[in-house]
C-alpha cells in the first residue's frame, strides 16, 4: 500500500478468499470504486480464491479477475486479503494462507475478515506474529451496495488499516468503527437486522391482505413504505421519533395504529430480539 500527498492510504492489489455472496459483494464494491483507497484497483490487480471450478469460471467472467482454487495458489503479493469463507472452514483457509510465502512473508498484507463469530485474536494466533487484522461484520444488503458494516481493529492493525477497510465497506453501504467488545451488539442490530425488517414487511403485507388487499399489492406497498421511510430519515437527518411524530395527527389513523402497536409490546419485542441475538453472538464467539 502507498500513501499519496493527501496522506490517504491507497491500495494497489487485493485478494478475496471465498468468492460467495459476501466475497462477490466485496469484489463489486472494490472494482466499482472511483475514490478512496481502492480507486486504483482494477480487475488485473485482484485474485479470487474459491474451490468450485464452475463458480470460479462465473466469477472470472463477471469481474474479469484471476481466479484460483485456494489461498495457497495465489501467485502474487497483495496489499489486502479479504477472508470471506464461512467460520467452519476458516481454519483450513488460514492453513492455506500460511502455506503461501507471498501472503505471510516479510511484507504481510492487511487481513480483513467477514466471518461471523471469530474474534481477531483467533486470526492473530493462526497467522505469523505481527499480522494486521481488521474484523468486519457486514449484513446481507452489502450484496446490493446497501450494507451496514461494523469494523474493529486487531492488536496490530493501525488506524490506516481501519481506514482502508472503511473505504471498501463505505463503497457498498455504510461503515462504523467500534471496539471489539461491541461487535456482538453490531451483529444483533445490523447483522441480524435485515431479518427483523423482513419480518415486519411480511407482517405488514399480511395485515393488508387480511383487510382485503391482494397479497402482491400489499407487499409492494409495504416494501416501498419501509424503503421510503428509511430514505426519508437518511436524506433529511430527522431522528426516527421526530419523523414518527410528524406523521401523527391527534385522533388520526396513524396514532390509532401506533397506539395498538405499542400496546401489544412492539418496542419490548424488538428489544428482546436484539438482546437474544446479542447473547447468541456472545455464545458463538466464546
Strand order of the largest sheet: 5-4-3-6-7-8-9-10
Can you write the helix and strand succession as a string?
Answer: EEEHEHEEHHEHEEHEHHHHHH
Strand percentage: 5-15%
For the record, the CATH class of the largest domain is: Alpha Beta
CATH architectural arrangement of the largest domain = 3-Layer(aba) Sandwich
Rg, Å, rounded: 22 Å
Instruction: Count the beta strands.
Output: 10
Helix fraction by DSSP (H/I, runs of at least 4): 40-55%
Span from first to last CA? 34 Å
The CATH superfamily title of the largest domain: NAD(P)-binding Rossmann-like Domain
* Biggest sheet overview: 8 strands, mixed
Give the domain tally: 2
CATH topology of the largest domain: Rossmann fold
Summed over residues and divided by their number, the pLDDT gives a mean of 94
Detailed description of the structure:
The chain has helices spanning 21-32, 53-63, 90-98, 101-104, 120-126, 159-170, 183-191, 193-210, 215-236, 240-247, 253-263, 266-285; strands at 2-3, 9-10, 14-17, 46-49, 66-68, 80-83, 110-113, 132-137, 147-153, 173-177. It is an alpha/beta fold and 286 residues long. It has two domains: 2-179, 3-Layer(aba) Sandwich (Rossmann fold); 191-285, ProC C-terminal domain-like (ProC C-terminal domain-like fold, Orthogonal Bundle). An eight-stranded mixed β-sheet has the order 5-4-3-6-7-8-9-10, with helices on both faces. Strands 1-2 form a two-stranded antiparallel sheet. Helix 7 (183-191) packs across helix 12 and helix 8 (193-210) crosses helix 9. The chain starts with a strand and ends with a helix. The model is unreliable at 3-7 (pLDDT under 50).
Amino acid at each position: 500500500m502507498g500513501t499519496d500527498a493527501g496522506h490517504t492510504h491507497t491500495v494497489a492489489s487485493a485478494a478475496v478468499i471465498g468468492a460467495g455472496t459476501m466475497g462477490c459483494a466485496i469484489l463489486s464494491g472494490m472494482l466499482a470504486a472511483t475514490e478512496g483507497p481502492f480507486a486504483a484497483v482494477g480487475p488485473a490487480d485482484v485474485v479470487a480464491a474459491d474451490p468450485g471450478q464452475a463458480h470460479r469460471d462465473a466469477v472470472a467472467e463477471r469481474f474479469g479477475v484471476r481466479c484460483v482454487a485456494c489461498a495457497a495458489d495465489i501467485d502474487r503479493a497483495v496489499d489486502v486479503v479479504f477472508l470471506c469463507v464461512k467460520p467452519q472452514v476458516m481454519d483450513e483457509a488460514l492453513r492455506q494462507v500460511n502455506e503461501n510465502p507471498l501472503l505471510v512473508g516479510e511484507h504481510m498484507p492487511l487481513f480483513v475478515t467477514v466471518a461471523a463469530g471469530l474474534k481477531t485474536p483467533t486470526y492473530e494466533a493462526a497467522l505469523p506474529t505481527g499480522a494486521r487484522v481488521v474484523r468486519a461484520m457486514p449484513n446481507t444488503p452489502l450484496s446490493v451496495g446497501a450494507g451496514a458494516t461494523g469494523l474493529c481493529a486487531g492488536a496490530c492493525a493501525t488506524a490506516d488499516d481501519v481506514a482502508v477497510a472503511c473505504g471498501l465497506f463505505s463503497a457498498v453501504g455504510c461503515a462504523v468503527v467500534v471496539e471489539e467488545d461491541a461487535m456482538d451488539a453490531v451483529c444483533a442490530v445490523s447483522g441480524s437486522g435485515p431479518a427483523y425488517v423482513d419480518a415486519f414487511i411480511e407482517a405488514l403485507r399480511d395485515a393488508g391482505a387480511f383487510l382485503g388487499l391482494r397479497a402482491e399489492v400489499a407487499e409492494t406497498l409495504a416494501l416501498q413504505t419501509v424503503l421510503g421511510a428509511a430514505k426519508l430519515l437518511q436524506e433529511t437527518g430527522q431522528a426516527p421519533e421526530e419523523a414518527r411524530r410528524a406523521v401523527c395527527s391527534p385522533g388520526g389513523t396513524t396514532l390509532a395504529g401506533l397506539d395498538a402497536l405499542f400496546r401489544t409490546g412492539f418496542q419490548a419485542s424488538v428489544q428482546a430480539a436484539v438482546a437474544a441475538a446479542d447473547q447468541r453472538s456472545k455464545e458463538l464467539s466464546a
